[in-house]
Prior knowledge:
Structural class: alpha+beta
Amino acid sequence: MIAPGLDVTRPGLADQWSDEQLSPKLKLILMWAGAWCQERGGVLWMTSIWRSVKEEFDIQRMILERQGMAEPERSLCARRLADSSLHPRWRAIDTRIPLLIGASIADLMEEAAEKYPYDPLRPRLRPCIRHIGTGDHLHWQAMASGPTV
């Protein structure tokens, strides 16, 4: 385990977790979330930390293709999404929690938003978002700067 209740799904992620480029605020949030899961009998599994803009483009393009978007719009939209992604900036981590039910995941997301607001000036933005596109997972994100609460 990387930290209490927090682990990785493949070896390279442990090195990324230790990389000094990873947002300290994001690490703080994930360590809190891991402990939260452990208290409830679960483990938060990190599935993705850093990825290149090219990898992000390929993922976004695949999701848009599954949703039925045609070219050239699909590639243009995927480029815009990839360019704005937080993964290449070391400010996002994707996770799965296989042992918690939906209501518990909703509780985790709400408590994270209360404890670690993404941006108090833009409350619609959250530190944890549930994504379905490449499989049901939680996307954790942190601002480049701002309060850590």
